[in-house]
């Protein structure tokens, strides 16, 4: 009896998922997930270009800087960084290399100057990042290269990191695609190559068969990769 009930429950869930996929395909919806700063003006222009090429397409943007919200399995396509998603059924397409640098506000630079290289960090103030929303490689790099007495504050999310850097409190890490075009901040020193990490477009196995999703990935991946390379 319990076994039959379980099978019925699984069938209902599968039917519901298939119905949702058919509805999304019929309506032209494509759900995209990724960190909030990804969806900047240039990426928005790419999405608009795709809609112009394929009228009727509608994007649902799930922008969040919390990993558990972005990679919760509900998006058709997700921008993933540092490592590939854990789901072995997820289809991943390489979208370039993410370069990570260190940035400071113009006000900080005017008062304190900027380090010329990694060997010139001792006289500067830094912002420490903590928590699961930041890549461990960057967290470890700061711990290895910056003394505790140089840390002026700790942040646990990307939004707060943006704010604290812009306030001029110290030097903090940012992906170069976010930091380079950001108003009011300047790159402090050349990005450490050891902090380069791969970036991916991860396509949900439930969406990979949909023609509109395949067209989007084919259209967007090379353009996004060129954008990433132009900002390095």
Short structural description:
The protein has 8 helices and 10 strands. With about 230 residues, the chain is α/β, with parallel strands linked by helices.
Query: What does the average pLDDT come to?
Result: 83
The backbone outline, from C-alpha atoms, is elongated
In DSSP terms, counting alpha (H) and pi (I) runs of 4 or more, how many helices? Answer: 8
Can you give the helix content as a percent range? 40-55%
Could you name the CATH topology of the largest domain?
D-Maltodextrin-Binding Protein, domain 2
What letter string, H or E per element, gives the SSE order? HEHEHEEEHEHEHEHEEH
Report on the structure:
The chain folds into 2 domains: 2-97 and 198-230, D-Maltodextrin-Binding Protein, domain 2 (3-Layer(aba) Sandwich), CATH 3.40.190; 100-195, Periplasmic binding protein-like II (D-Maltodextrin-Binding Protein, domain 2, 3-Layer(aba) Sandwich). 40% of the residues lie in helices and 24% in strands. It is elongated and about 55 Å long. The strands form 3 sheets. A 5-stranded mixed beta sheet has the order 2-1-3-10-4. Strands 8-5-9 form a 3-stranded antiparallel beta sheet. Strands 6-7 form a two-stranded parallel sheet. The chain has 232 residues and is α/β, with parallel strands linked by helices. The protein has helices at residues 2-27, 41-53, 67-70, 106-112, 136-145, 158-166, 176-179, 211-230; strands at 29-34, 58-63, 77-81, 91-98, 100-105, 126-129, 151-155, 172-175, 185-189, 197-203.
